[in-house]
Amino acid sequence: MELHITGDAAADQLLSDDAFALLTGMLLDQQVTMESAFAGPEKIRTRVGSLEPGTIAAFDPAGFVEVFKQTPAVHRFPGSMAGRVQALAETVHQDWDGEAAAIWTRGNPTGAEVLRRLKALPGFGDQKARIFLALLGKQCGLQAQGWREAAGHYGEEGSYLSVADIVDPDSLVKVRASKQAAKAAAKASKA
Questions:
Q1: Sequence-separated (6 or more) residues with CB below 8 Å from residue 188
Q2: Does 188 reside within a domain?
Q3: What predicted TM-score, i.e. pTM, was given to this entire model?
Q4: Mean pLDDT by 10-residue block, N- to C-terminus, for the chain (191 residues)?
Q5: Dist CA 7 CA 3 (whole Å)
Q6: Gyration radius of the chain over CA positions
Q7: What is the CATH number of the domain that holds 30?
């Protein structure tokens, strides 16, 4: 698996190699660009020296906020997002023995079970969990039975709706266009 989400080779390599980095990038993907969100785990790893869930969970909370504030910032909302990343790290450390990939591999779960496990994570609502499930299925080799159905329209083949569909600069342009169209449609329906 080789992901190409951020445009930064080191950040993309970390996402490709480290399941917790990928999970953290997904958590950070709100109110910032996808590239910025998914580059966040590399910034954290570089500044902390580790991205191990136990290390992140045990990090001094005030100090972790400072890690997020360093330039370039990990996220535009350093306080709340640093807390969410630490809560995610604590859950992965405590509930999954520090192994993020166990969330989607332990016990050979179905797509519906993986979705349930993802939705149980701090900071993962229904939509974020479905997008991440689609990312696992489309780009990370997840073979869980029924993952496409559980991911909803994000799991559809040939769709360009989310980070799950970004494999190169062209697909990034298509995803951005579909997101802009969805925002315009939502705005029009409110008017």
A1: none
A2: no
A3: 0.94
A4: 89 96 97 94 97 98 98 96 98 98 97 98 97 97 96 94 91 89 87 80
A5: 10
A6: 16
A7: 1.10.340.30
